Amino acid sequence: MNYSDRLADIQPFFVMEVLSRAKALEREGRDIIHLEIGEPDFPTPPLVVERATEFLRRGEVRYTPAAGLPELREAIAKYYLDRYGVRVASERIFVTPGASGAFLLAMGLLLNPGDKVLLADPGYPCYANFVRLYGGTPALVPVGAESRFHVNSEILAAHWDDRTKGAVIASPSNPTGTVLYPEELNALVDEIERRSGFLIADEIYHGLEYEKPSPTALTYSDRVFVVNSFSKYFGMTGWRLGWLVVPADSIDNAEKLAQNMFISAPAPSQYGALASFKEENLQELERRRRVFQDRRDYLCDQLRKIGFSLNTIPSGAFYVYAGCSRLTSNSLDFAMGLLEKTGVALTPGKDFGKNSPETHLRFSYAVTLARLADALSRIRRFVQG
Amino acid sequence: MNYSDRLADIQPFFVMEVLSRAKALEREGRDIIHLEIGEPDFPTPPLVVERATEFLRRGEVRYTPAAGLPELREAIAKYYLDRYGVRVASERIFVTPGASGAFLLAMGLLLNPGDKVLLADPGYPCYANFVRLYGGTPALVPVGAESRFHVNSEILAAHWDDRTKGAVIASPSNPTGTVLYPEELNALVDEIERRSGFLIADEIYHGLEYEKPSPTALTYSDRVFVVNSFSKYFGMTGWRLGWLVVPADSIDNAEKLAQNMFISAPAPSQYGALASFKEENLQELERRRRVFQDRRDYLCDQLRKIGFSLNTIPSGAFYVYAGCSRLTSNSLDFAMGLLEKTGVALTPGKDFGKNSPETHLRFSYAVTLARLADALSRIRRFVQG
Ligand SMILES: Cc1ncc(COP(=O)(O)O)c(C=O)c1O
Ligand SMILES: Cc1ncc(COP(=O)(O)O)c(C=O)c1O
C-alpha cells in the first residue's frame, strides 16, 4: 500500500511509550502516579451528567444540525457576553467534536497546500499535524521564558515571510501553562490583521487561570478564529465536545465543511453541555479551579527545591514545563528511568517540539495534593540517587 | 480572509434547502412528512441507553485510547466472526466519531494531493468532499440500473488511469439502496489489488438488507479498508460512533493519525455500543429490519403505480432512488413544488452527483407505514395535478 506522504512527518507521541510502560508496571502491581495526564482528574460535573441522562432516557438520539443545537450555540454566545463582555452572534459558533474537531474544521477552511503556519515551540504537538494533514507547512518558532513561551507580535513579525498565511496561539499554553497578557494579545491580533493573515486562538485552557482571567481574542477583533472546548475547564474530556468561533463571512463555508466532516457533534454531549453554563455548575468549576491553584503553588515550589528551573510563572492550565538541565541532559531517559525506579510518569519535552526538549519535562497536576506530595518525594529520592 | 481553494469545489447540500423550507412550513402549522431523512426513525435501542446511562452515573467520562476501548474493539472483532465468519484481529479495528470520522482517517492515511479516487455517481456526496479535503481528485463514474448503480470490476477497469489510486464503494448504497453481489464484490477486490490500488468499502448499511445479507469485503482480502458505523443498523446516529478496519501494516499509521485528529471517540457512545452486540439487542434490530422491509415493499409498489420508474431492486438501506422522467424534467423544482403544495419532503437527485440528477428523487422510508401511505396519496394528488 502507498500511504500518504504526510505520515512520514507525523511523529507518534513519546508519552504513549511512557503510558504503555506505566500500564505494564501497573499490571505487575506497581503503584504509578500519573503526572503525564492531559485531562482533569475531577469527574464530569453532576449537573451535566444529569442533563445528559435525562436526554438519553427519551431515546431520541438523532443527528443535530451540523453547527450544533441552536440552544447550545446561544448558551455559548451568552457565555461570551457574561464572562468576557463580548458580543458574538450565535450563528458564528460551530459546535464540534472537541477542540480537535474545531482545528480540523478551521484548518480545512483556511489552508492550501504549501501554506506556512507559525506555531510556538514548545507547543501542543497536534497543531503541526493538523497543518500537515492539509498539506501545509508548520513553522515552529522557538520561544522561551523571555516571552513567557509565547509568540508575541515582535516574534511573529520576525518570522513572517511570503508563504506565511497565519498563526496558532494558545494561552494558557500546553505544555507551559503560561499566558499572553492582554496588551500582547491585542498587539498580536493587530499585527496579524495588518498582514492579512489568519489567527487561530486556542482558548481551551481559559477558566483555568490562577492570576487573572484572560480576555478572549474576540475582544480585539471579530476576524480571528477562536477554538474552545468543554474538555478542560468544563471537565468533559471523554464527551468530545468543543467549538469554533468563525468570522461572519465564514459561516457558510464552515457550515458546508462541518456537514461533510462530522454530520454533527455527539448529541448526548451537546445536551449535557447545556447544563455547563448554569450558575450552580460554574460555582463548582470555580471550586475546582482553586484546587488546581493550590496544587500549582505547591508543585512549583517543590520542583524548584528539587533543582528544576522555572523561569516563568505557569499561570494557567494544569501543567508546569520545568527545565531539568541541572539534573539531566536527556529528559526522555530521565522520564523512563524515573518511571521504572519510582513509578512517577511524566511527559518528556520531545513531545512538544524541537526547542531544547532534552532539558524539559512536563508535569501535570491533575492529581490530588497527597499524590503530588508522594510523587515529589519519590522524585527527590530519585534525583538524590 | 483567503479561504482554502477546496471550498470552491464543495457544494452545499440541496436537501438543506428542502429541510429549511420544511421547517418554515412546520412553524406555520403545516404537517410535513419527512421522506428526505437519512436516519432511522427508531429510538436508540433500550439496552444501549441503559448501558450508557450506567456508565455516565459513575461520572468518570475520560478520553479513551485513540483506537477505542479494547473491549469494544474486541466485540466488533467477534461480530465479524459471528456475522460473516471472518477473523479480524481487534488491533485492526479503529473506533471513530461515526463513519464520517472513519473516512477522515482512511483518506488521511491514503491520499496525496492530485490522487484520483473512483466514486459511483449517483453516490453519497461526502465521499467526493473527503477526497477534496486532502487535495485529491474525485473521479465520478456514472453508473445506472445495468450495474445496479455500482462500480463493478469492468467499469472500474474502464475508468482506471495512471493517476487513480483507489476507489470507494458502498453496498447497500446511499442513495440507491442497491447491493453488489458477492461475486461482483470479489471480482472488484481482485481487480483493485491487481492494480495495487486501495479499496474503501463503506458497509454502513450492512444489516439493513432485504434479500440476502451481504458478505463484508474483508471476506475477500485483508488489504481492504472497511468503514462501518453504529448509526444506521444499530440505530445510533446522534451518538457519533463508527469504525474503520485497516490492513495490519497500517495500524501504526492509523494510530498516529487518530491520536492527532480525534484524541478519541466519545466515551459514553463507546460504552453504550458495548450493548449493541447482545443477543437481545440483535433480535430487536432484526425486528426493525423487517419493519423496514415491509415499508420498502409497499413504497416501491406504490411509486411504480404513480409513474416513477424503478429499474433495479433497492435491496438495502432505507432509500429508493426513483426515476421521475415521466413526471418532471427538473427534480429539484418538483421536490420544492411537492413540499410547498403537499408537505412531503424528498431529496433531489442533485445531491448525489451529476449523472441524470434532474430525473431522480430519493425517497427515504424512515417513517411509519401509515405516514408513508399518507405521503403517497399526497404525491398521487400532486402528480395528477
Ligand atoms: C492546547 C490543547 N488544544 C486542544 C486540545 C484538544 O482537546 P479536545 O479535543 O479534548 O477539546 C488539547 C488537549 O489536550 C490541548 O491541550
Ligand atoms: C453511505 C453513508 N456513509 C457514511 C455516512 C456517515 O454516517 P455516520 O458518520 O453517522 O456514521 C452516511 C450517513 O448518512 C451514509 O449514508
For the biggest sheet of chain A, the summary is: 7 strands, mixed
Ligand identities: pyridoxal-5'-phosphate
Q: How many domains make up the coordinates of chain A? A: 2
Structural class of chain A: alpha/beta
Rounded to the nearest angstrom, the distance between the terminal CA atoms of chain A is 49 Å
Tell me the quaternary state: homodimer
According to CATH, the fold-level topology of the largest domain in chain A is Aspartate Aminotransferase, domain 2
Spell the H/E element sequence of chain A.
HHEHHEHEHEHEHEEEHHHEHEEEH
Rg value of chain A? 21 Å
Low-confidence stretches of chain A: none
β-sheet strand percentage of chain A: 5-15%
List the keywords.
385 residues, EC 2.6.1.- (chains A, B), seven-stranded mixed beta sheet, binds pyridoxal-5'-phosphate, three-stranded antiparallel beta sheet, Aspartate Aminotransferase, domain 1, alpha/beta, Aspartate Aminotransferase, domain 2, 42% helix, globular
Describe the structure.
The structure is a homodimer of 385-residue chains. Chain A is built from 13 helices and 12 strands. The model of chain A has no long low-confidence stretch (mean pLDDT 97). In chain A, helix 8 links the parallel strand 5 and strand 6. Chain A folds into 2 domains: 143 residues, Aspartate Aminotransferase, domain 1 (Alpha-Beta Complex), CATH 3.90.1150.10; 217 residues, Type I PLP-dependent aspartate aminotransferase-like (Major domain) (Aspartate Aminotransferase, domain 2, 3-Layer(aba) Sandwich), CATH 3.40.640.10. In chain A, helix 2 runs parallel beside helix 12 and helix 11 packs parallel to helix 13. In chain A, 42% of the residues lie in helices and 14% in strands. The termini of chain A are far apart. Chain A is globular and about 60 Å long. By secondary structure, the first copy, chain A, is an alpha/beta fold. A 7-stranded mixed sheet of chain A has the order 2-8-7-6-5-3-4, sandwiched between helices. Chains A and B meet through helix 3, helix 5, helix 6, helix 9 and helix 10 of A and helix 3, helix 5, helix 6, helix 9 and helix 10 of B. The complex binds pyridoxal-5'-phosphate (PLP) (2 copies). The site of one pyridoxal-5'-phosphate has 13 residues of chain B, from helix 5.
